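**Sequence, structure tokens**
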Amino acid sequence: MKHPTPTRSSRRLPKDRLEAMFYMQAELNRRIGVDTTSLPEHQQPTWILNFCRALSQEVAELVDSVPWKWWARYQTYDRDNARIEVVDLFHFLISLAQIVGLSARDVYDLYMKKNQLNFARQEQGYTHKDEDDNRRLLASGDSIAQHRRARRATSSKRAQSRRTPS
């Protein structure tokens, strides 16, 4: 199924589905009035809280899609609504990822590393919490840090080229 571009000014959507979702969410957020891809650091905590509250509300709406009141017999499972609520969660999770400087590729890379760590923890019995486990995932030599530095350099070059007369 073909999906329309989110705005008239939008370029062609990326072929990678996760990249496309990140692109479209950034477009939607800009349309709403917040550029999640370039928020100043001092505004980031406010928007992280805003999106966390929105996520909490969406989780509550998802919970309402299932018969969670064990004492009530009138409730039914609304699978269609549950699916919509899960998609709503993605909207806010992607926004949060963008605010903290994660691209779709960063999320994928970090997810793969975290998933590997979680499997290793389970294989080892996960008998104690090692706070350094998660820190090692974001070590300075990590691809996320490298991508972030490359994005900053590219943005800086673009900004400089706009200021320099042709």
The helical segments are 17-32, 44-63, 79-99, 104-123, 131-137, 143-163. The chain has a mean pLDDT of 86.
